[in-house]
Design goal:
single chain; 254 residues; alpha/beta; Rossmann fold; 2 domains; 6-stranded mixed sheet; 4-stranded antiparallel sheet; 11 helices; binds adenosine-5'-diphosphate; binds magnesium ion
Length: 254
């Protein structure tokens, strides 16, 4: 079943066509990679789906409902969660407090935290930390956590309101290869566990080929190809984009 349908979506910034009539579907339970060189329009598309930006043209249907024109908070409430390209938890708070704040936000109970101290939904918060293997760091302030651990915490925070669709813009940016693989393997596991679907951007072809169910390829704002990693492996349009950008696609073919 289709969870998200992007149809003829366009967005320009002055003379730059950041997205030019982009159309694709994301199916329920899918881990869909959105790929393309820098400046291809990936973040712009993410921001239109989550409501930070409004599409100039086209339609974005989430479970049949039009998202264009809705505010970010409304889209979030419908079940579209996100992680951020740059991790930004509340640094002075501990890992478990960050998840507790996310649970309060879900429950529209943000003021309770300050009134009732740190007990809010603690068991649920710990379970979420457990799902990303951070329970042993629960009382550590985020400012003291390793970068890769903060990214996993971000995943727990994003899952707190049980989104049906999770948008992850460059979740593995700044990570070492092994850490990248761990994060995406974990994400794949959570897709099954939490029945969430994922749209993510990623630069490492190894990661994309290892973990995505399908991929959608953007170049200069246009969708140039879409298919399974196996289908895309031999696609000359995709190779051209990556070879042209001096990227690592060719290495991944071997
Ligand atoms: P990607 O995430 O694939 O690297 P972006 O969506 O960030 O690509 O950018 C696509 C194009 O739109 C680029 O040419 C970029 O410079 C331009 N762009 C993105 N956001 C803005 C903005 N807020 N104002 C002006 N130009 C922008
Ligand atoms: Mg981007």
């Amino acid at each position: 079943m289709k969870l998200l349908s992007v149809r003829n979506v366009g967005k320009s910034f002055g003379g730059v066509r950041a997205n030019d009539s982009v159309s694709f579907d994301l199916n329920e339970g899918e881990l869909l990679a959105l790929i393309g060189p820098n400046g291809a329009g990936k973040s712009t598309l993410f921001n239109m789906i989550n409501g930070q930006l409004r599409a100039d043209t086209g339609s974005i249907l989430f479970r049949g409902q039009e998202l264009v024109g809705l505010r970010p908070r409304e889209i979030w409430a419908l079940g579209v969660g996100r992680t951020f390209q740059v991790a930004h938890p509340f640094n002075s708070m501990t890992a478990v407090q960050n998840v507790q704040v996310a649970l309060m936000s879900r429950d529209r109970n943000i003021f309770n935290f300050w009134r009732r101290g740190t007990g809010y939904c603690r068991d649920e918060a710990m379970a979420l930390l457990g799902s990303v293997s951070l329970e042993d760091q629960c009382d550590k302030p985020c400012s003291h956590m390793a970068y890769g651990d903060v990214k996993r915490l971000e995943l727990a925070v994003a899952l707190a309101h049980k989104p049906r669709l999770l948008l992850m813009d460059e979740p593995t940016a700044g990570m070492a290869p092994q850490e990248r693989n761990e994060l995406m393997a974990r994400t794949k596991q959570l897709v099954n566990e939490y029945k969430v679907s994922v749209l993510f951007t990623e630069h490492s072809m190894d990661v994309i080929f290892a973990y995505s169910d399908r991929m959608v390829v953007l170049a200069r704002g246009r969708l140039i190809a879409a298919g399974t990693p196996a289908e895309m492996r031999g696609d000359s349009r995709v190779q051209e984009v990556y070879l042209g950008a001096g990227n690592t696609f060719a290495e991944s073919l071997g």
